[in-house]
Amino acid sequence: MLAPTTFFHDKVVLVTGSSDGIGRAAVVMFASAGARVTVTGRSAEKLAITKQQCIAAGAKEEQILEIGGDVTDKNFIERLVNETVGKFGRLDVLVNNAGAKTFDFSGKKGIEIPIDNFDSTMDLNVRSVILISQLAIPHLEKTKGAIVNVSSIVAFPFVIAQPYYPLSKSCLDQLTVQMAGTLIRKGIRVNSVNPGAIRTNFSHAAGMAEETAKKFYDSLDESLPSGKCGTPEDIAKIIFFLTDRTQSEIIIGQRIAADGGTVLFNQGLSAGV
Ligand code: NDP
């Protein structure tokens, strides 16, 4: 947990994909710092757990708005933003965190993977971010707010068997830069955090059996330069920092890799180490 800050007291924070993983850890952190929060995702069951965790962290029931739905659905996104501003009267922070690797089971590799997989991946990881940000901008302009996009280190050049997920995150990074450059003129700061391997439900949600996913993260604990995978709270702390104007006002349009040294060693900087 970070040192106490009063910045988020009564601020309004919307975190997409906050029914699980990184988004859940972030929204609980904001709620515990006094923010009014919107928790959202598709699973009502998981949303209820997030809400309980916010309350256990000190939030009051009336500080939390819970809205279930799919961020690739434009009507739902409109509801999400309108109901957040309708209930709380303002919006200070948008965290575009909802995302996934849509696993393709065709057995093909690289760009021979069917284009439907590209479309659904881009829809979730990029298009929905543009749409929700468009709706949030007028509200964030009034509060001189902040946006954090949750990208990935796979946005940096890597060769991966299923390329559309990294492609979508590279696109998201470019989007962060474009958003940051135009929106700072309205007083809105935009940055991204690019996690490496973080122990969440991510691989299971992408189609990996739960036990296999656990073994996968265990093996990464041994091979990562830092000697362990990150936790959702590791990333939540960075999101928290990047959206707290009193801590990070000068940071605009940056991608913060948070990966236990993975990229450093994959860029050939480590020869002989
Ligand atoms: P999780 O699977 O634990 O959480 C993903 C969250 O996104 C859930 O709350 C899920 O909610 C929500 N979500 C997924 N699809 C949709 C949708 N169509 N509509 C609404 N909500 C949706 O994964 P992480 O917490 O790990 O992932 C969070 C972000 O971090 C993603 O953008 C991911 O790409 C990124 N990331 C993760 C890494 C990792 O190693 N874990 C590494 C690098 C980046 P629900 O299931 O209820 O719909």
Explain what this protein looks like in three dimensions.
The protein has 273 residues and is of the alpha/beta class. It has one domain: Rossmann fold, CATH 3.40.50. The chain is built from 10 helices and 7 strands. It has a 7-stranded parallel sheet, sandwiched between helices. α1 runs parallel beside α2 (44-56). The longest helix has 29 residues, at 115-143. The chain is globular, with a radius of gyration of 18 Å. The model has no long low-confidence stretch (mean pLDDT 95). The chain binds NADPH dihydro-nicotinamide-adenine-dinucleotide phosphate.
Secondary structure: elements and pairs:
Blueprint: E1 12-15, H1 21-32, E2 36-41, H2 44-56, E3 64-68, H3 74-88, E4 93-96, H4 115-143, E5 146-150, H5 164-183, E6 189-195, H6 202-205, H7 210-223, H8 232-243, H9 245-248, E7 255-258, H10 262-266
Parallel strand pairs: 1-2, 1-4, 2-3, 4-5, 5-6, 6-7
Radius of gyration, whole Å: 18 Å
Helix content: 40-55%
- Order of helical and strand elements: EHEHEHEHEHEHHHHEH
Please report the total strand number as a whole number.
7
The geometry reads as: globular
Please supply descriptive tags for the structure shown above.
alpha/beta; Rossmann fold; NAD(P)-bd_dom_sf; 7-stranded parallel sheet; binds NADPH dihydro-nicotinamide-adenine-dinucleotide phosphate; SDR_fam
Quickly describe the structure:
It contains 10 helices and 7 strands. By secondary structure, it is of the alpha/beta class.
